[in-house]
Amino acid sequence: VSTQSTGNMDDQDRSTNGDYGTKFIQPYLEHYFSEMTEENIWLMNSIHNLYNQNRISGNLLEIGGGPTIYQIIPSISKVDKIIFTDYSKDNTSRARNWHELGQDQKVWEMFFLYEVELLDKSLAVSYTHLTLPT
């Protein structure tokens, strides 16, 4: 996963919105992604079907990924490289910390396991094709 923040920073540095990074992200993840709800199952099924019903390959550009990675999980076995972008440095830092430091593994583990279940086979997922620019 490559992560990049985008946006015009002329007025102020909106990419690290103080309260957004410190007070919003963790409660948001806990509220919406702490379990495989019907909505999360629908999201994962839909994204999985998109990748498996089409011949998708090459690089994936994730624009506005937010603090989540569930949306790229089904693509990992299909694409060569994932470039993760977001306006907020807090969001790209979150993706980078998951990838490089293993943070939030518990949050996303059930999403990875669900994708493996959808693939209907044991799958050793390799993260070597995920890169993060500095």
Describe the structure.
This protein has a three-stranded parallel β-sheet, covered by helices on one side. It is 44% helix and 11% strand. α2 packs across α4.
Keywords:
three-stranded parallel sheet, 11% strand, 134 residues, globular, 3 strands, alpha/beta
Order of strands in the sheet with most strands: 1-3-2
Radius of gyration computed on alpha carbons: 15 Å
- Please identify the oligomeric state: single chain
The main sheet comes to: 3 strands, parallel
- Helix segment count? 4
Number of strands: 3
State the secondary-structure class. Answer: alpha/beta
Question: Which regions are unreliable across 5 or more consecutive residues at pLDDT < 50?
Answer: 6-14, 122-131
Cα shape: globular
The SSE order reads EHHEEHH
Strand content: 5-15%
Helical fraction equals 40-55%
Q: What is the CA–CA distance across the termini?
A: 11 Å
Question: For the residues shown, what is the average pLDDT?
Answer: 79
